[in-house]
Amino acid sequence: YDNNLPEPTLEMTMELIEQLEEAGIEVHRKTLREAKQ
What we know:
The chain contains one helix and no strands. It has one helix at 10-22. It is elongated.
């Protein structure tokens, strides 16, 4: 929180989740939204 680290785009996050699920890793989804600019 407010650590000035860059956040991945929502698209990149969704791609990662899909790749993890395809690899058999269970992903617990929470509310995802675009990062603040």
